[in-house]
Amino acid sequence: MDIIVCVKHVPETAEADVRIDSTGKSIEKTGLVFDINEWDDYAVEEAVRIKEKLGGTVTVITVGSEDADSTLRKCLARGADKAIRVTDPKLEGSDGYAIAKVLSKVIKDLPHDLILTGAQAGDDGYAVVGPALAQLLEIPHATLVKKIEFKNGTAVVNRELEGGLEEIVEVKLPAVLTIQTGINEPRYVSIMGIRKAREKEIKVLGLTDIGLSENEVGEAGSWIRIEKMYIPPVEKQAEFVKGSPDEVAAKIAELLKAKGLV
Q1: What is the distance between the alpha carbons of residues 228 and 205, in angstroms, rounded to a whole number?
Q2: Mind listing the pLDDT tens digit for each residue in 52-94?
Q3: Is 184 among the domain residues?
Q4: What is the domain extent for residue 189?
Q5: Does residue 253 lie within any of the structural domains?
Q6: What CA–CA distance (Å, rounded) separates 141 from 139?
Q7: Is residue 223 part of a domain?
Q8: Which of 125, 128, 209, 219 is the most exposed place for a label (fewest CB within 10 A)?
Q9: Helices assigned H by DSSP within the chain
């Protein structure tokens, strides 16, 4: 089975001091640590497990600068066979739809039985690349996948729904599946895997190589355009109520009445 996994190189901001850059449309990336998108990490692991069970190949693709090679090499070290990076300055400002267009142009010429993406990206949270990619390739898709099995040319998948529920659907292959965290336990990358990954080629493509014009990507080719980014101001401080239980209860009741909540 030939599997393609679309991955993204994203900044880790959970514990970082995030600042808006001088353009007002992005964050200051200097000093931030970048790694593979969390959801994509699970997608790569799932692809490698399927390959180990059924045979075939795993190809990872990203859209980004040369810095993203570290994420691609991590995927190669984990068990991916090939890596492709699409790079072009004109891609700056591309939203999820524009990125899906880029990926579709690369994938259409590659053998593929299954395409995996993360359910969403940790930096923008659009969750649009997978479904848009399936639409552009004119193949079925399923989102928030937590389990995959194969039967007679189809993928039988469990989709995560609200309230802890799951839906089981059957999708004809080839198909796009967006992977939810928790579908597996991503393996640690071995030293031997890292050494082998250094020797593998990362194929680099530009817009002209995939047949897209600058008007089809960037802000011109996107559905969403970022006008301004800002860090929400802290408008109110928490109020700590002290005293005995009766005094605290009475104070809370007064506060609720003052706010018109009771």
Answers
A1: 30
A2: 999 999 999 999 999 999 999 999 999 999 999 999 999 999 9
A3: yes
A4: 2-216
A5: no
A6: 7
A7: no
A8: 125
A9: 38-54, 69-78, 96-107, 129-137, 191-199, 207-210, 245-258
